[in-house]
Amino acid sequence: xxxxxxxxxxxxxxxxxxxxxxxxxxxxxxxxxxxxxxxxxxxxxxxxxxxxxxxxxxxxxxxxxxxxxxxxxxxxxxxxxxxxxxxxxxxxxxxxxxxxxxxxxxxxxxxxxxxxxxxxxxxxxxxxxxxxxxxxxxxxxxxx
Length: 144
What we know:
Elements: H1 2-15, H2 19-38, H3 42-58, H4 62-80, H5 100-116, H6 120-133
Helix pairs in contact: 2-3, 3-4, 3-5, 4-5, 5-6
């Protein structure tokens, strides 16, 4: 009996990998972000929204990814304007501000998403901004 249960649990572990795990994370991460948003924790809200976008990208759900990335972009824009990104929901906000790395990661993910949506001309500026924010600006020249 114990051997049969062990064998069944092995098959469950084997079957619960890859896309199944990503599908669960794609659902769980936004819910976790919502909890942190309610607590006024901007850094963790952004982290889990970015992770949700990355999970969507891994599953080729580009529209889901762009939705989460737009939300992160709006949060960054509000923070840069010294505005509460959770206005009307949270009065006490943490003091976190996005670093250039955070903004570079956002730009890179937006570029990847647009490229996956077959919009390479729209993706390239985001990739360039990401490289610049990471300190790896590329020299560009027009081809004749």
